[in-house]
Amino acid sequence: MLEWENKKIENLINMKRTHSCGELSFNNLGKDVVLCGWVHSRRDHGGLIFIDLRDTEGITQIVFNPETEPLLHKHAHNLKNEFVISVSGKVSQRPEGTMNPKIPTGGIEILTKHLEILNPSKPLPFEVNEETLVSEDLRLTYRFLDLRREKMHNIIILRSEVFKIIRDSLHNQKFIEIETPMLTKSTPEGARDYLVPSRLNEGMFYALPQSPQLFKQVLMVAGFDKYYQIVKCFRDEDLRKDRQPEFTQLDIEMSFVLQDDIFSLMENLIAEIFDQVFHKKLAVPFPRITYQNAMQRYGSDKPDLRYGMELFDLSSLALQSGFLVFQKTFKAQGRILSIKADSGAKFSLKELDELINFAIDCGAKGLVWIKVLDDGFQSPVRKHLGNEFLVQTAKLLSAKPGDLILIVADAAQIALNVLGRIRIFLAEKQGITGNNEFNFLWVTDFPLFKYSQDEQRWNSEHHPFTAPKEEDLGLLENNEFGKVRSSSYDLVLNGAELASGSVRIHKPELQDKIFKILSMDEDSVRDKFGFLMKAFSYGAPPHAGIALGLDRLLTLLTGSSTIRDVIAFPKNQKAICPLTSAPSKVTAAQLSELNLTIKER
C-alpha cells in the first residue's frame, strides 16, 4: 500500500458509501458524499484530472484538483481503468459548457477530498468502457469483465426485471410457484438426456430434466389449479446461436381451461412485459394461423410476418410450360412452388448462383430464376418455359419490372421447406428483417403424429401427452393417423418459436391408445411413465399448459445476435464454459466411488 494511502485509510475504512454513482443531481449540491466503484476512464487535462467512476447504477465524474488537493492529484496519476476505488468529496455543479446531457449525473461532479484504492486491476485483455469487437471465446473466458460492459450489464438487469414482472403478474392471478426435481428419471423427450450416476444405487442413473412436463401434469392431478415455475432445463443436443445445454423457461400448467385461456394468459403477460419494460403497447389478441396454412403460405411452421414474400403454387400452370422438369414433377404428384423477391432483378449472376447453391444445400434438385424486365423476362430456361407461362406466373405473383421470381419443383415437403428457407435468406440478404417490429403469431393445429421411414413407425410431433382435436378422434379409430391434428400451439415471434404447449390428454384410455399407436408396449410405458399413469387413475382434471423460452425471448427483446448474450455464464458452441473450463476430467477416486471407468476409444 502506498504511504499516502496509509494516512488516508483511517478516514475511509469506516466510511460507508452514501450514494450510488447514478443518483446524484443538483439536489445534492454542496453535500459531502462517499462513492465506490470502478475507474471507467481517466482524463488528464494537464491540470485537473477527471475520473469517470462507475458502479451498477451509473457513472459520476470525479475531479482531482492540484491546487486544493495536490497530494491526491499526484496519486490520481496511478489510477488505471477498472481499479476499484472509494472517494469522498463535495458535490459541485459542472462549469458552463462541460455538462453531459447523455447521463443522469451529467450536471454534477465530485470535488475529491479523499481517495482509497480498494483493489488495483491487471492490464485488461479487452476494453470494458467501449464496444470494441472482441472474439466470443475471449469474452466468455473473461466473462466477469464482459459483464461490466454497459450493454451486457443492462441485459442482465433487464433479465431480472422481466422475471420479476412475470412472477408479480402470475402471483396476482393466484398462480402457485412450485419447484420440481432436477435429479429425475430419464424419459424420451426428443433430445439426449444429461445423465447423472447415482453413488448410492450402483449402476443406476438420474437424468437432468429436459422439461418439467410430467411433474406439472402430476401437480394438476394433485389439485393445484394454477402452477408456474421459472425453471432450468437441460438438453444434450447440437448447439446453435439460439440453443444452450442448459436454458431457462417459464413453465405453466392450468386445470379446467381451454386453449383460448392459455392464449389470453400469455398474450396479457407478454403485453405487460412490453408495457413495463419498453413502454410499448402490444395489440392483443395475437393473430392465429393453422400449421397447414403456415406451411402453404410461408414454407415454415414459424413464419416471420415482418415481411411478405408468400409462396405461390404454380402446379396448375405447369402444363402450360414446355419445361420437362415441371411436367415430370406434376405427373409425379409433386409441387411447383414459387416466391417473388421485390427488386430482386438487380441480383448479379454470381448472387443468383449463390441462391441456386443454397437451394441445393437445402435439399432441392435445382432452382429456376426469372427476372421481370420492362420489356419481358430473363431466365436461363426462358425458351423452355414459354411466354404464356411467364406472363401468367408474373400475373399470379403480381410481379412488376425489377422483381425476381424463384421456382422450385420437387416433392411437396421438399419444395415447401426449400422455399421457406429461401424466403428467410432473401429477407436477410435484402435487409428487411432488421427493424424494431415485434410480430407475434399463434400457430395451431399441428399434426399429432409424424411417420419415421427409418424406424417404420409413428412418432409424436410434440410429445405423447398432447391431446388430439376432438373432431379428429374418429380418424384415430379409422387408423388415419397421418390426418389427426393435435390440440397444440406455438407462439412465434419474428420467425422464432418462443413458446410451445398443448391441451393434455387426461383420460387414461385415450393415453393408452396413443401409446399403442407409438408402438410403446406396456412394460415400456410402465418403466418410463408409470408414475404419471398411476396418477391419472386417481382422477385427473382436464388440463393444458405452455412453456415460454425466456432466454430466446430476451434475445429477441434486446436485439442480441445470440442467446449466449442474455445468459450470465453460458457455454460456447462446443458446450464448453471458457470461464471455468467445464466440463473437465475427474479423479480416479471419484470414478471409483461411482463404480465407473473411462473406456478409451
Structure description:
Strand 18 and strand 19 form a beta hairpin. This protein is 31% helix and 23% strand. It has 3 domains: 117 residues, OB fold (Dihydrolipoamide Acetyltransferase, E2P); 263 residues, BirA Bifunctional Protein, domain 2, CATH 3.30.930; 128 residues, GAD-like domain (Gyrase A, domain 2). The strands form 5 sheets. Strands 6-9-10-22-21-20-17-11 form an 8-stranded mixed β-sheet, sandwiched between helices. Strands 1-2-3-5-4 form a 5-stranded mixed barrel. The two termini are 54 Å apart. The longest helix has 23 residues. The protein is of the alpha+beta class. The radius of gyration is 31 Å and the shape is globular. It has 18 helices and 22 strands. Helix 6 packs across helix 16 and helix 10 packs across helix 13.
Q: What is the arithmetic mean of pLDDT?
A: 93
Question: In CATH terms, what is the architecture of the largest domain?
Answer: 2-Layer Sandwich
Please give the order of strands in the largest beta sheet. Answer: 6-9-10-22-21-20-17-11
Number of discrete domains:
3
- N-C termini distance: 54 Å
Number of helices: 18
**What's the CATH class of the largest domain, please?**
Alpha Beta
Unreliable stretches (pLDDT < 50, length at least 5) are 1-10
How large is the radius of gyration? 31 Å
What proportion strand?
15-25%
Structural class: alpha+beta
Largest sheet: 8 strands, mixed
Q: Outline, from the CA principal axes?
A: globular
Secondary structure layout plus pairing:
Blueprint: H1 3-12, E1 32-44, E2 49-55, E3 58-64, H2 70-76, E4 84-93, E5 108-119, H3 136-141, H4 143-146, H5 150-172, E6 176-177, E7 194-197, E8 205-208, H6 213-221, E9 226-234, E10 246-255, H7 259-278, E11 288-290, H8 291-298, E12 312-313, H9 324-331, E13 335-341, H10 349-361, E14 368-373, E15 376-378, H11 382-385, H12 387-396, E16 404-410, H13 412-429, E17 440-444, E18 449-452, E19 457-460, H14 473-477, E20 488-493, E21 496-503, H15 508-517, H16 522-536, E22 543-549, H17 550-558, H18 588-593
Parallel strand pairs: 3-5, 6-9, 11-17
Antiparallel strand pairs: 1-2, 1-4, 2-3, 4-5, 7-8, 9-10, 10-22, 12-13, 13-16, 14-15, 14-16, 17-20, 18-19, 20-21, 21-22
Helix pairs in contact: 5-7, 6-16, 10-13
